[in-house]
Specification:
The protein is mainly alpha-helical and 487 residues long. 75% of the residues lie in helices and 1% in strands. The protein has one domain.
């Protein structure tokens, strides 16, 4: 029987036989090594197994890379850099891992198929200039002025490039409207999970705060996790609220296209709306209102304004004692406004504004690092104004690059969002609403770089651009078929 099997399945060609033997030996060595590793470092072994499975899935179906970025990032982005992965956040390591797999795949395909041509759409070109204005240009000016470029400057200089890398992965791997739809559903499901975790954190239910504390306390500062202001797995209340708003717009777009899904989308919308209030950020509520108005105007569905009010009583009833009432009570202080607002104004007036208006800093920026070291719980003070961050980090070039990026995004996503004919149009709708909210909320904070929510926004921009590519390829195929059918 053994001889029969060997004769039936063992390669007869010498080169194939050698190749099979090598694969067999490597398989035995890997299996033995994994067995030893499982006994000595089970977590490392588990990570390698999961990595191998993900690599195989991405290699077989590249769109899995986009699903992983959309689905995993909100769940791990709040884990501090270096806590689980050396020198990186988990979501950054995931992105680089996926880029490595896709890069190897592209390199092999190039050897088989010839030259690989890279083309940039208008959104990608605006993105590249935005990244250059936030990194290379300010660092060059720092060197020309003889200012030392510190590690913090390099760390902040690569932020927009990491977002551009995320955009490229989603843009490169998603190739059909069906894959866009899957990515949108993944985003909504994960958004609801993050929202529910935030609600339980705000209400201090089921020991969620204790579960979040070991990994999601920024810089080990546990008071942030134990607070009633829900940062969930994102680690930042305002960013969590932005993420909820983006997913709410996706839900509204999906519901407008398929009203029969109201049985599952309506509860999801309710969770997302209430989760925005659990962040206890006044700017986040403003962003929610702006996004809903955008959707109502673009889709000519003013009834959405009425239906959106149904979530307010639920949010107020659930969160009033623990979250909403304390925030409103802040206005009864001696100065008539929350203490956090006064601290924000003091920090801007003391640490940032004087340097921005000093000499030519207004034109070329101060430095990419958007924080200054101080004594305190976190050891730093961050710029809590998005437009001042633009002037601080890159001066007038960065300010203009941001304006061009936003204008290009609105011009690109607006027409598709109004039609709402495809899943990519739903992504365009969410992108449009997110950009409009960002324009206003940048007055208060640099929302365009908020971890978690910025990742989601750039991913949605990529998904909307994928729809344009699918439409262009379909038109090209139709033209070729018509030309081929002509005599």
């Amino acid at each position: 029987m053994t001889a029969f099997v060997a004769e039936e399945y063992w390669p007869t060609d010498r080169s194939d036989r050698v190749r099979a033997l090598v694969v067999l030996l490597l398989g035995v060595m890997v299996a033995a090594g994994m067995g030893v590793l499982a006994g000595r470092a089970p977590l490392v072994c588990l990570g390698l197994v999961v990595g191998a499975i993900l690599a195989a899935a991405v290699w077989r179906r590249p769109a899995v890379a986009a699903y992983l970025i959309v689905g995993v990032t909100p769940l791990v982005v709040g884990i501090d850099r270096g806590r689980l992965v050396p020198q990186m956040r988990v979501n950054e390591a995931l992105t680089f891992f996926l880029v490595a797999i896709l890069g190897v795949q592209v390199a092999l395909q190039r050897r088989r198929r010839g030259r690989f041509v890279l083309t940039l759409d208008p959104m990608a070109r605006a993105f590249v200039w935005f990244a250059l204005a936030a990194s290379l240009i300010p660092i060059v000016f720092m060197i020309l002025r003889g200012r030392p470029v510190e590690l913090d400057d390099w760390t902040y200089a690569v932020v927009m490039w990491k977002f551009l890398l995320l955009y490229a992965v989603v843009r490169f791997t998603v190739r059909s409207e069906r894959e866009v739809a899957i990515a949108l559903w993944v985003s909504v499901v994960v958004g609801v999970v993050v929202g529910l975790i935030g609600l339980m954190q705000s209400l201090d239910l089921f020991g969620v705060r204790a579960l979040l504390e070991p990994l999601y306390a920024p810089f080990g500062y546990s008071d942030v996790v134990l607070s009633t202001r829900a940062g969930s797995t994102v680690g930042l209340p305002a960013a969590t609220a932005d993420l909820m708003v983006l997913n709410l717009v996706i839900v509204l777009g999906l519901l407008s296209r398929t009203p029969a899904l109201i049985w599952c989308l309506a509860p999801a919308a309710l969770v997302l709306v209430v989760s925005v209030f659990s962040a206890a950020e006044f700017s986040s509520v403003l962003g929610l209102m702006l996004a809903i108005v955008c959707v109502a105007v673009l889709l000519r569905r003013l009834d959405l304004l009425r239906w959106s009010l149904l979530g307010l009583p639920v949010a107020v009833a659930a969160l009033w004692p623990t979250t909403i009432a304390p925030r409103i009570a802040d206005f009864s202080s001696l100065h008539g406004m929350p203490t956090s607002w006064l601290v924000r104004y003091y920090n801007l007036a003391t640490y940032f504004w004087p340097q921005i208006i000093d000499g030519s800093n207004f034109l070329v920026g101060v430095r990419p690092a958007a924080r200054v070291p101080v004594e305190g719980a976190f050891g730093f003070v961050w710029i809590e104004s998005g437009y001042l961050w633009l002037l601080w980090g890159g001066g007038l070039p960065l300010f203009l690059a941001f304006g061009w990026f936003v204008w290009t995004g609105l011009k690109t996503t607006g027409p598709a969002a109004r039609a709402l004919a495809t899943p990519s149009a739903v992504a365009a709708l969410a992108s449009y609403a997110g950009l409009v909210s960002c324009i206003v909320l940048m007055i208060f904070d640099p929302h365009i770089t908020y971890r978690g929510s910025a990742d989601a926004l750039f991913g949605l921009l990529a998904l909307s651009a994928c729809g344009s590519q699918v439409a262009a390829e379909s038109q090209r195929s139709r033209r070729q078929s018509v030309q081929g059918g002509q005599p």
